[in-house]
Amino acid sequence: MNYVYLVLSGVVMGLIAAVPIGPVNLICIRRTFAYGPVNGFVSGLGAALGDGVFACVTGFGLTWVAQLIAGYATIIALVGGAMMVWFGYHTFVDKTPITRLTEDRNDTGSSTLVRAMASSFALTVTNPATLLFFTTMFAGLGGLAGGAGSFVDAAMVVAGVVGGSAGWWLALTTLIGLFHARIDERWVKTINRASGVIVALFGLAVLVRLVIKLY
């Protein structure tokens, strides 16, 4: 296969996985408004790496990992749903003063950025449905799913997935970052409450669906 085609196919997959509005998008948007584009982009990069993990599992034919994820899908979804509820609640009740936010907008310390990346990565990899998405997408690339393609072929697609997802987060957070310096305390509170409620509802929907499935 043409390597350009494989990379572009991966980019498209990464964009399809990243663009739809979901809890990770809302968290990254909120962080960009509050703390600036660097924090927002690093948060998005965590999600891109999470997409890359699922792409690796599918592209490199790591069947045992896929089976392990499928076997613990309920537990993983439970953890993911609980995390979304916790993130939503924490965001909703956040009362950080605007003066502190102004200082934090210039805070690009490694510990802050690592936490931002780790949290979005954790939310992404606790969504087993993403594995099914990449399995379906790889199946459309001439049998790459399950390791039918070569190692290099799969690596090209995985690189495209991470690059496409990361490119989306870079574009989104850069655009939003143009406005974050104008956000005052009233807007911060509104953004926190709105995004907090929506993220928590995503989490509750996951938990309710699990309860219905089990009973």
Total number of beta strands: 0
Characterize the largest beta sheet: strand count, sense, and whether it forms a barrel: none
Q: What is the ordering of alpha helices and beta strands?
A: HHHHHHHHHH
Poorly predicted runs of 5 or more residues: 97-103
Number of domains: 1
Average pLDDT score? 76
Number of helices: 10
> So what's the overall shape?
flat
State the end-to-end CA separation: 47 Å
User: What is the SS-derived class?
Assistant: mainly alpha
Helix percentage: over 70%
Radius of gyration (CA) equals: 18 Å
Could you please describe the fold and organization of this structure?
This protein has one domain. The protein is flat and about 55 Å long. The protein has helices at residues 3-18, 23-35, 37-59, 63-71, 73-92, 98-104, 110-125, 129-139, 151-180, 185-214. The model is unreliable at 97-103 (pLDDT under 50). The chain is built from 10 helices and no strands. Helix 2 (23-35) runs antiparallel to helix 10. By secondary structure, the protein is an all-alpha fold.
Summarize the structure.
81% of the residues lie in helices and 0% in strands.
Features:
215 residues, mainly alpha
List the helices and strands and how they pair.
Elements lengths: L2 H16 L4 H13 L1 H23 L3 H9 L1 H20 L5 H7 L5 H16 L3 H11 L11 H30 L4 H30 L1
Helix pairs in contact: 1-9, 2-3, 2-9, 2-10, 3-7, 3-8, 3-9, 5-10
